[in-house]
């Protein structure tokens, strides 16, 4: 695992033995040697799953055999490298011929060539001088003029081999790669056509794959034991690749994680968030190849994005899904919304209430083998905790903002990059830091140079607590930089939370997070930078809401004094607005302004309005027009119209007591899209009731 490159190459000798298998190889080599006889031939079978290290173990067995017993001639036969059955037979006999001594083996090679020609007339002939059947000098001429029977030819070759007194060991690796017919032909060769006395074989294969190939050729029946019994006739000495023990799996995984870890000081599995998911790793990565292939994927993917842009542990879990269940992984982007929200877009109605239908992940898991679905389900819930079953907690969820469970970060985990509809966290952080230092150019470019959708994403990342200054002075400085940006953002009443609202909330959090004893002048300087009273009130309302959530011991000392200043301005502005009558500025937020004053100094506002009525500066229609709002449908192109829902409750709190003939005027039909004060005064006729006698007392 020390190598930075992984090539899936088998070990050539025991030097790289990481699992203590040399002892097993030594015992196997001794078994092979001790069972040798020039009167018979034996077949050893080495079984193990793909990637378990069969070839490496075979190489160690050969190493020990040749080291301890140098008389052995070892040759390797690669059956799946041939193109047809005839080629397979020719290559097989050629493989045995290659290991023979050059001079003493001439007669044996000639006998093998004759045997091959009888067994497979169309096969390539055996070369005299060694090499493969496709290379070297071909045997031809008189030796093949009169071919004997196969039994005679085989007997002759056997006698020649026996006389040579050269023990031969033939390695036949990966026989499970053959198709059904090729596999049966090879087994026939080993069982009948290649059982030369003094020649031993070792066949390496994965049991499950081998049996599946045999079933595909109808040589055996599925699931009735005939495949196992068939192989018992071929293999006399079954060996197996020792499976990885749990501690070996974890040790190899830990070594790999240490190479690629960059977000935590602890690089192993033991004390990390994914420590509770070790069972998933050991279930799905059960062979050395599986583990090394997985780590190789991580080694490639982890560096593609800086550590602050993703959660590396999420990358590790998603990569585990991808290498284990490719079909499941490829389906996940289609369910982005459901995975991150935990529900579908469909509503269900129960007892008068509506809720979204929970997203069921079971259909997604149908592409996963039944015995592995538990691990797949556990991994998905760890990545997307909102899909957990009702009442169950997702205990292995990420705590990082940059997690795949958050929709704004989902795509980068599958693209392993920052796409056009995304923005780098590092870029946002750099812009905020510059703004804290008083340089707003970067932040302005990020906020105003984006589409509406991307601007919302930028602001969401800006408000991340990790990006906020820690000192009171720098918090106030950043708030001062943000106010002009809030002024420049368009008012968008067509969405529930506008970009301007996001910045106002950001400013409120910055100010409330300043020192409790911050001077009133500093806070006032920030608030009075807002253009107009309406925006100032919206900002202050968010600040008051934030303060309400604080305990009394954490409340700052300045809010009440600043509130008084804003209330003074609000009362004076509203009274002047009333005096101007129909000529007053048409703007939204008048009703909101009235509610703000009533919340703080209701009696003062009522007294001031009553004085205006006593001096005939204002009448009931003018006052009522200020409480006539306009509305439009949310989410569509704005089409503002006067709302029939007159704010009678607020009117009751500020209107002079008593009845008046005006209240009994008939309803007027007006153009609802005319939002002028004059039209609003006509609109409220017949729609307003006199305040009840106890209206103010009941407030």
Description of the structure:
There is one protein chain. The chain is an alpha/beta fold. The protein has three domains: 14-240, Rossmann fold, CATH 3.40.50.300; 246-415, no CATH class; 423-557. It is built from 28 helices and nine strands. It has helices spanning 22-34, 54-68, 85-98, 106-119, 150-164, 180-193, 207-216, 226-234, 246-260, 278-284, 288-301, 312-324, 326-331, 336-341, 373-383, 407-415, 425-436, 441-448, 452-462, 472-488, 499-512, 520-527, 533-548, 559-579, 590-614, 620-625, 648-654, 677-683, and strands spanning 43-47, 73-77, 168-172, 199-205, 237-240, 343-350, 353-358, 630-631, 641-642. A five-stranded parallel β-sheet has the order 2-3-4-1-5, sandwiched between helices. Strands 6-7 form a two-stranded antiparallel ribbon. A two-stranded antiparallel sheet has the order 8-9. Strand 3, helix 6 and strand 4 form a beta-alpha-beta unit. Helix 9 (246-260) packs parallel to helix 11 (288-301) and helix 10 (278-284) crosses helix 15 (373-383). The longest helix is centred in the last third of the chain and has 25 residues, at 590-614. The protein is elongated, with a radius of gyration of 42 Å.
